[in-house]
Each structure stands twice: as structure tokens, then as C-alpha cells.
Amino acid sequence: MKFAFCLYKHFPYSGLSRDMLRILQVCKQRRHQVDIFTGEWQDKPCENASVHVLPVRALTNHSRCALFHRHLRHALLGQKFDAVIGFNKMPGLDIYYGADYCYIGRAAPQYGHLYRLTPRFQYRHHFEKSVFGLQSKTRILSISEREKSVYQQFYLTPEERFHLLPPTLDPNRKLLKDPVPIRKETRQQLQLDAKLQVLLFIGSGFKTKGLDRAILALAGLPDKLRNNTRLLVIGEDNEVPFRKLARRYRVDRKVIFLGGRSDVECLLTAGDLLIHPAYHENTGTVLLEAITAGLPVLATDVCGYAPHIERANAGSVLHSPFEQSILNQRLLQMLESPQREYWQHNGLRYAQNGDLYQMPEAAMDQIEHWSTERQQADAANVHCQIDNHENLPINMYLRPDIRHALPEKSSLSTILHINGESVRKAPGRRTVKTAIGGKQYFLKAHFGVGWAEIFKNLSYLRLPVLGARNEWHGIHHLKRIGVDTLTAAGYGITGLNPARRQSFMLTEDLTDTISLEDFCRQNWVGKQLRGQDLVFKRSLINRLADIAHAIHSNGANHRDFYLCHFLLSCADMGNSNTPRVFLIDLHRMQIRRSTPKRWSIKDIAGLYYSSMDMGLSQRDLFRFMRRYRRNSLRQIIGTERLFWARVRRRAVNLYHTEQRKSAQLATSSVTVNPA
Predict the structure, then answer these.
(1) Bridge partners, residue 274, by sequence
(2) CB 591 within 8 A of CB 630
(3) Per-residue DSSP letter, 159
(4) Which domain holds residue 131?
(5) Residue 576: its pLDDT value, please?
(6) Number of folded domains in the chain?
(7) Is residue 665 part of a domain?
(8) What is the reported pTM?
(9) C-alpha to C-alpha distance for 203 and 611, rounded to whole angstroms
(10) Do 541 and 504 fall into the same domain?
């Protein structure tokens, strides 16, 4: 077969470039022909492929990428390739090797709304949508299950277009010799004393991979330990701002920039800890390289390969939301921990797993399969379709098992009118419980709220709920930050008119659960709890505080944060260690860069209001405050008195308002019989 490999830039220290060369090596072994099209080739001549360097001169990075794509289209004209394979996102690809994180989901939210008007955003969004959009036919070789869900959240990409690859670990990075003399020799070459603690930071994207965080963590070490520690920075990027940062915190003599290196396996042996506090990282192959070299790892959970650290028990993972103080504390603990030898042995044992090294072969198998499928379709003079994808509207996602269980060619309108047991009905929307394929689901259908409802909400300075979009994004957001919630099985939306927009949300039924409101009323009200019951009560309070902390620290707020919207797993009732609690009813949820204080107050006040009659003590409230703020009660009362006063005032006002409404309702329902 004949393939075209396309990437913007090739240089030897890029993980993406190394992945491409490893796949290229398998192509050669299988006697395929490959042409590489790139805008820049910073390496020795390639023996396994014809390299075409396209001229790309422009002032900005996105302009260079757009110019490269324009030249690439002309270069591909008249040539017949079995597949055009892109290692960067661009239009016209048959297959995309998905090494990049989702731009619209990860990077764009960091900026304001005006940023969406810039040429940079327009270009990157267009190129990303050309690969992942529902109108695209591009197949995706995904190397991160986590990032795949982000793409599906924003582009509704069908499951059938993805193929998940095994880890991208290169067996050539394994150190086959005795590491002790190599460690000694490497340290001598770098003029590092054997007694020094050596931190490694490896990666060519200094900003994205969190070099600033690593420098601040080094600066935060106690004086004695900091003076005995060095941070080696390996990779090619702009060093100037990070040198300035190190100088500002007086650790510039302890941060050593080595540039790009080809002896990374030796450097891993010379180090004592890999620090990788990334902001965004689709995978983080260097994490696996460090683990399998016996080097303990400290990384953030945004890295796609972070779960391998926990599976191997070869280091520590910082869970979102990121806090610099926690990184500083964890770094200190790891440098002084007696477990370092234990982590090292665990990593070396984990390296024996052969599945870690199979990515190139697995990628090539799938490329050949898709290319053969396309050839057969062309020979039959039919266009290759993706498992009924042509029957879906361009604004609907259905999980494969749901789509196969529904009647063929089910449209959005058909799903909106699925019948079932009515659960809730309101103007413009309804919720039914229905069975699909032998399983129970909840369908929330929105038919448009009308302009009157929109203006009514706006008059009260409230954003109206226009459909299922909030819940769709809320479910994905909560799952990424580790909060148990509903499982989405389908979502669809249509219409530009906000007053008449139709949408639906299909979620799995959470079986064997009980509302926390019902549980508390049945088990806490009017009872003196002791022993295991008291311990479980405290565990539940801690869990609710953890959920509130997680969503508010990650830019979200619920807007209906009441006990009735938490479901407790009956299987975990009485389990004082990890009671599983699900947060539901996300149709009003908001997600921003950061959660405004007033919305945090509204959420916490709602939770407090709904628990006022549940038998909580003052100690229970203090326990929640400590856990939610991750601080001592003394500091909370000293610095956040106004915040908690506003929470209490709002909760009490809401409680009295609801009491008056209940009294009025009871009075109006009384009838007087005639004499």
C-alpha cells in the first residue's frame, strides 16, 4: 500500500515525531510505501520514506499551519494514496493519529468570549472540526480514552470512528545495562554531586507541561533540602520566561536547562524524581518512560497516562483541581519518603508488561484494515460509510448499543416522542422512564420554552434553561473531575431559534439508589446516632463537602444544589470509607473558567437549607466547612466570616420563604363544610 504521512513539523525530540517514525518503521517491515509531507524537517535524512518539505513562511503559528495545508492539498493532487494520515489536525485526512488534546474543550475556555473572534481561534476550531465533526469521515487513532470523551462532548463524534491504541512506549528507551554505573557516569558528565537530589522535567512544551509549577515547587522546599536539589529541564522551547521566573524566586542556580537530548534513558537513571505538573497533556509518554526506568513520578491527573502511575504504584498523582501548595507539599513528602526504593521496584516490574510496547503494530493493523475497507468500497463503487452514521442528523450522538436497539433511521424527532412512564412534566419539557434494549433509561425531552419564559427569566436576572446542552456538558465535566453522576447514552439538539429549540438527553437509570433527602429523613431525624451510624454520617458529610469543593474549584456550579439531587448507592449504605453519592439534575449547571463567589454561596446555601431539618449538629456544619475549604476552622472563621454569613442568611431566608409557601398552600386547601 501507499500512504501519505502529514505533519506540520518534525524534530527528533518531539514525542509525536518519534511516534510517527515508529509507525513508519512498521510500514517498512510490511513493505508499504510512504511519502512524508512536512513544513519543517529538523533531523537526518529519512531512509524509510520520501520526505517532501513544503514552503511555509508566515508570521504566526496558525498562519504557517494554514499555509502548510494549502500547499499540501496541491501536493496531493494527482497522486493516489491508499490513505492520507495526519499527525496534526487538518481537513482532508482519511486517518488522524490523535496525539493532541481537544482545543475547543481544553484551551479555548481559558480565554474570554472575544477570543472566539480571533483568526487563531477560527483556524484551530475549523481544523479540529474538520477531523472530529459529525460531517467528517476521518477515522481517529486515539491514544487517550480521557481525551476521546472530551472530543465526543464537543463534537458528538460517533464511537465507530475511534480506535483506541495501546500506550506509545518505545522499547528502545528501556535501559538494558546496569543502571548504577550509568547513573554515576551521567552525573559526572553533568557535574552533579552524587548526594544531590535531582528532579527531572522532560518535555518540549514548557508552558503546557507546567515548568512554572515545577520551578515554584522547587522554590517552596525547605532551605536545606532546596540547596541540595537540582531541577534538570530537558526539551526545546523558549527558556527566557522560565529563567526569569527561577531568578525571581532565587533558584536560578538550581534550575539547569539542558535543551533537547537523545540520551533520555541515561538521564532518567541519573534522576531521583520526574516532576510533570502539566496543565494539559493528552498522554504523557515520558511518564511511562520514567516508570519503566525505575524513576518515581509526580504528575497531575490531566495527563492521559497518569493512571499508569497509580496502577504501577510508582509515584503520586495530583488530582484536580490543581493547587500549588499541594504540589509543594507532595514534592517534599516524596523527596523525604522511605518509599522511593519501593516505587522504583514497582516501576521496573511494571515495565515487564509487553502490552506497553505494541502501539506501532496496533496502529498499522488498524490503518491497513481501514484502507482495505476503503479499497473494497471503491471497487464496489460505493462510498465507505461508518456504521449507520449516514442516518444520524448532524447534531445527535447515540451510543452504539442505543442506536442498534432503536428502530432503523431513528431521527431526533422520533427520540423526542419516545413513550414511557411519566416522571416529570413542565411547560416545554418532559421526563419519562423508558426501556431500550432491555435496560432502563431516563429521557429528558425539551420542546422549546417560548419567548415569554425566556424574558421572564431574564427579568429576574436568571439565565433560562433552553435545552439539554447544560446537562450534556455537565455530565462530562463531572466525570472528568471525579464526581459520580449520570451516564449519558444519547444527546441531540436542533434549531437555531432559542425559543423553539428542541433537544433531548438520554441517561442510564441509577438503580439501587436512594435520595439523600429520603435517607437522612428516615435515618437521622429524631435519632441519637452512635457507633457505626455516626461514623457513616460523618463520611457522608465529608463526601458532600468533597463534591462541592470539586465542582466549585473546577469552574462549575449546580444552581439546584439540594439534598434531593444527591443519590446514595444502597450498596454503600453503612460503608464508612467510601460512600458512593451521585449528583443528578444538571440541566441548570453552569461551567466557566472559575466559579464566581455568588454562585458558590448559592449552591452551599441550597445544600444547607435542604438539610436544616435533618438533625445536623453544629459540629457537623463545622466538619463540612473544614472539608469544603481544605483549611482549619480557625483560619476559615478568621478569613471567611463574611462568606459563611452570606451562606447562612441566604439559607435561612429560603427556609422561611418555603415555610410560608407551605403554610399558604395548607390554608388554601382547607374546605369548610356547610352547616
Answers:
(1) 200, 297
(2) no
(3) G
(4) 2-164
(5) 66
(6) 4
(7) no
(8) 0.84
(9) 49
(10) no
Q: What is the CATH number of the domain that holds 529?
A: 1.10.510.10
Q: Are residues 184 and 113 in the same domain?
A: no
Number of H helices, E strands in the chain: 24, 24
User: Contact, 313 vs 296, CB < 8 A?
Assistant: no
For 413-454, give the DSSP string: HHHHT---EEEEEETTEEEEEEEETTEEEEEEEE----HHHH
Answer yes or no: is 339 within a domain.
Answer: yes
The residue from 302, 323, 352 where one domain ends is 352
**Rounded to an integer, what distance in angstroms lies between the CA atom of residue 380 and that of residue 399?**
29
* CATH number, domain with residue 292: 3.40.50.2000
The pLDDT tens digits for 592-640 are: 889 999 999 999 999 999 999 998 999 999 999 999 999 999 999 999 9
Same domain, 151 and 176: no
Is residue 669 domain-resident?
Answer: no
- Secondary structure (DSSP) of 513-574: EEEHHHHHHHHTTT----HHHHHHHHHHHHHHHHHHHHHHHTTEE-S---GGGEEEEGGGTT
Task: Let me know the angle formed at the C-alpha of 389 by 388 and 392, rounded to the nearest 5 degrees.
Answer: 105
Query: Shortest CA distance to 589 belongs to which of 507, 472, 492, 668?
Result: 472
The answer to whether the bond into 321 is cis (omega within 30° of 0) is yes
Q: Are residues 137 and 176 in the same domain?
A: no
Where among 119, 144, 164 does a domain terminate?
A: 164
Of 200, 256, 192, the closest CA to residue 228 belongs to 192
Contact present, 6 and 87 (Cβ < 8 Å): yes
The position carrying cell 438520554 is 506
Residues ≥6 apart with Cβ < 8 Å to 277: 209, 210, 213, 214, 217, 298, 299, 300, 318, 322, 327
Residue 120 belongs to some domain of the structure: yes
Measured in residues, the chain has a length of: 675
- Dist. CA 338–CA 181, nearest whole Å: 23
How many Cβ atoms sit within 10 Å of the Cβ of residue 673?
Answer: 4
Q: In what order do the strands lie in the sheet with 488-494?
A: 396-398, 488-494, 502-508, 439-446, 429-436, 421-426
Q: Are residues 495 and 531 in the same domain?
A: no
- pLDDT averaged per 10 residues, the chain (length 675): 95 88 95 95 90 91 93 92 96 94 81 85 94 95 92 94 92 74 92 94 93 97 96 94 96 95 90 95 91 95 92 93 93 95 94 91 96 82 49 74 87 90 89 94 93 86 86 95 94 89 95 94 88 91 95 94 96 78 95 93 97 92 95 92 96 93 74 46
Tell me the per-residue pLDDT of 321-345, one tens digit each, with 9 for 90 and over.
888 999 999 999 999 999 999 999 9
